[in-house]
Amino acid sequence: FYTAAYPALIMATIISDALAVSPLHLEADLVERDAGAWSGLTRSAIDEHFPGYLANGTRPEGYEPDDVVLDRTLRAVDRIIDRFTPVRDPATVVVITHGGVMPNWNFATY
Predict the structure, then answer these.
(1) 3-state per-residue secondary structure call for 29-96
(2) Among 16, 17, 96, 109, which residue's CB has the most CB atoms within a 10 Å radius?
(3) Among 10, 2, 66, which residue's Cα sits nearest to residue 34?
(4) pLDDT at residue 85, as a whole number
């Protein structure tokens, strides 16, 4: 399973080719956090255009809150689990996603 971002697709393809497994499955809810006005900016650009925001924890309008990221991430994980629950043989599932998703995922217990 991979998210829609191109780097995740490249990584998923490399791993699936190396392990000789297919098919790849897109899971759109594993996409990176929507950072609002920060989307696409480097940390230095954020500091330049939004001075002090990173240092004091302020986020711009449209920044996706942790609880929203966690909810959609858990929905994605539930769908992945549901997809493989009927499989009789044990299955190994590799999930390729973004750094912004993983810290939220760590709050959940499966």
Answers:
(1) HHCCCCEHHHCCCCHHHHHHHCCCHHHHCCCCCCECCHHHHHHHHHHHHHHHHHHHCCCCCCCCCCCE
(2) 96
(3) 66
(4) 81
How many angstroms separate the Cα of 80 from the Cα of each of 29, 51, 105? 11, 40, 14
* Among the listed residues 100, 106, 82, 88, the one whose alpha carbon sits nearest the alpha carbon of residue 25: 82
Residue with the two structure tokens 């539930």: 78
- Position 11 scores a pLDDT of 86
Residue 83 CA to residue 63 CA, distance in Å, equals 31
Reduce the DSSP state of residue 2 to 3 states and report it: strand
pTM above 0.90, yes or no: no
Helix, strand or coil, per DSSP, at residue 26: strand
Tell me the residue type at 79. R
pLDDT at 35 over 80: yes
